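I would love for you to help me understand the pair of lines that follows before we discuss the fold together.
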Amino acid sequence: MNILVSACLLGVNCRYNAVRKEDKMALKLMEKYTVIPFCPEVYGGLPTPRIPGERVGNNVIGKDGSDLTQYYIEGGKEAVRLALMYGCKFAVLKERSPSCGHGKIYDGSFTGRLVEGDGITAELLERAGIKVYGESDIPDLLED
């Protein structure tokens, strides 16, 4: 089965601060599934490194006050397109991210405070019928 996975969880150098940080449990997904790595920020046109962004309502605002929303929307659309192209039934995404977060995201104050909500990519994937999980759900996905 094919699954879409946030590329940063697999150690791809695409995080906002260009620091590689792989998740060992995410790498184990490759033992059970065919993993399709994806970074919506990069596919949306943002560079690595980039200004950190947080979701504020329907927008994503950069720490410098810039409006990054369109980049995040474009990246989310590409994630849906890729997931559907490969027949992915679910995605494992980076928690708390303004793109990939599901259930809890940063509140837009850049203070580390969390609020209920979804990132733009997570929201678009769910609307397309693709179940979204965070990296903390990986152990459940690896059980037989």
